[in-house]
Amino acid sequence: MMAYDVAEAGRAVLHASEQAVFWYMLLVNTGYAVLLLLAIIELAEQWHLAGDRQTNLELGSRSLPPISVMVPAYNEEATIVASVISFLTLEYPRHDVIVVNDGSRDATMAVLHAHFELYEVPPAVDVRLATAKVVAYYRSARFSRLLVIDKENAGKADALNAALNAARHPFVLAVDADTLIEPDALIRLSRPYMLGKEIAAVGGTVRVANGCNVTLGRVGSPRVDSRPLPGIQTVEYLRAFLFGRLGFNRIGGNMIISGAFGLFSRRHLLAIGGYEHGNVTEDMDLVVRLHRWLREHRDPAIVTFIPDPVSWTEVPTSLSVLGRQRERWHRGLITTMWTRRSMLFNPRYGVIGMITYPFFFFGEMIAPVVELFGYFLVIMSLLTGEFDPTVTLLFLAVSVGFGTLLSYWAVLLEQLTFRRYTDGNDIWRMLGFALLENVGYRQATAWWRLKAFYNVARGDRGWGTMVREGFRGGGEIRALTPVTAMIAVGTTPAAHESDRRVA
Strand pairing of 95-102 and 67-73? Predict the structure, then answer.
């Protein structure tokens, strides 16, 4: 009799757990559905503002704010020259570039010396934020707007703080060293400023450069990599930027500005103490702290996202590197969510506290735990003879099926609006990768994210090694001069009149 009662209790717990997982996944995916609807409305409005005529009018405006481009670099010898060239030759009236070599152990610094003819200059920096020791400051004999800071290794946040100290303009663009920015991206990012809004931060879209040909630091005709791993990530990035960020943007609750491509008010960053050490996703932590500061000081400046300014980045092509990246991302999310938990369901912080923060806390952060638990329950039901095909199909529909549907929507939205991918084969590849993503890749990602909880508990703050392939065609920049760079990318001498060879 007791054995029977125990078996009955076990079945009850199993069925209750299955129901709980199902309703959790349904609730989270309902949230994603709402985000999708909001994103469609927001995208229609942003697409209207992104017309070429508006961009050309802004290009001719002398009221565009001057910008310092901040580039932290650690072991980036494969891509650093192409990236710096793309930053220097942006179509923007007034901007400079600050590259921070964060104690690289490869030939990053040697490559910068060779390609940009660096020479050491005396420090002329108002140090507002404490950083690790700066070894030297360098200027380029080829591009007067390029400053290179060589410092001891202390992490990306420390490198960005060193760049913030050296920045001389009111706005700063934080980018990764493996990022390529489209020529008019800075102009498009400054649109809220031109519309009379006070800016705290503006984010742009990041796309996958793997498989694209890169010439003189520019992506030519965008292509989708035929290899499954970077191809699936191409769809992931589309989904994240074309409806995730846009959806929250619609309600004023955008909580992520990508560290690979984000424009910030320098004044606001200094006010919150710059980038904080100890979080391996310093970009999300920064934006959360920025939101908190704006609310607490009743500052009307906005944190927003614009889909049409585009940057391109290289993504991992091996499972080991991808696993380290995704574990680190989730570890950073957990750290931020727990450290700033006083904002959770706190009406003082408006939409962020009442909607966005809870969504990330209970949806994004907890999701891998619940999803893997759901797979475990399916296996247990099979082993115990309690398999219910209806419950299993419903679980797969809301977890796997809806994820595929969202990916298809992201591809559709891309083709209806910006159409960066014009080759028909690329469209079919993305649709195929959206389906393939749910067979092994999704489960592996959930496992890597689950491991992050254990690593947070044991105090792991490491980044791991990120191996770069380098951009396809990137080697064509060896003979580049300031003049040929401007001609090659179609920029006007007037936009870069501050570039003079310093002999």
Answer: parallel
- With 80 as the cut, is the pLDDT of residue 12 above it? no
357 vs 263: CA distance, rounded Å = 22
User: Of 128, 149, 155, 171, nearest to 274 (Cα)?
Assistant: 128
Query: Cβ(137)–Cβ(99) under 8 Å?
Result: no
Distances (CA, A) of 286 to 71, 111, 283, 330, 356: 17, 31, 5, 16, 15
Give residue 304's identity as a one-letter amino acid code: T
Report long-range pairs for 411-415 (Cβ below 8 Å, ≥24 apart).
411/235, 411/238, 413/39, 413/40, 413/43, 413/238, 413/242, 413/243, 414/238, 414/242
pLDDT digit string, tens, across residues 435-467: 999 888 999 999 999 999 999 999 877 766 666
User: What is the reported pTM?
Assistant: 0.86
**Which tens digit of pLDDT belongs to each residue from 262-310?**
999 999 999 999 999 877 888 899 999 999 999 999 999 999 999 889 9
Q: Is the pLDDT of residue 58 over 70?
A: no
Residues in Cβ contact with 274 at an 8 Å cutoff, skipping those fewer than 6 apart: 128, 129, 157, 160, 161, 164
Q: How open is the CA angle 105-106-112, to the nearest 5 degrees?
A: 115
C-beta separation of 100 from 128 below 8 A: no
Shortest CA distance to 305 belongs to which of 253, 350, 364? 253
Angle at 175 between CA 174 and CA 180, to 5 degrees: 150
Flag whether pLDDT at 381 surpasses 90.
Answer: no
Averaged pLDDT, 147-176: 95
Answer for the pair 177, 79: CB distance below 8 angstroms, yes or no. Answer: yes
Closest by CA position to 263, among listed 287, 244, 247, 246: 287
What stretches of 247-347 adopt beta strand conformation (E)? 261-265, 302-313
Q: Which residues contact 42 (CB under 8 A, 6 or more apart)?
A: 246, 247, 249, 250
Q: In this predicted model, what pLDDT tens digit does every residue of 384-420 receive, in sequence order?
A: 777 677 777 777 777 778 888 888 988 988 888 888 8
- In 3-state terms, what secondary structure has residue 98? strand
Contact 448, 326 (CB under 8 A): yes
- 52 token code pair: 């070429």
Q: What is the 3-state secondary structure (H, E, C) of 214-275?
A: EECCEECCCCCCCCHHHHHHHHHHHHHHHHHHHHHHHCCCCCCCCCCEEEEEHHHHHHCCCC
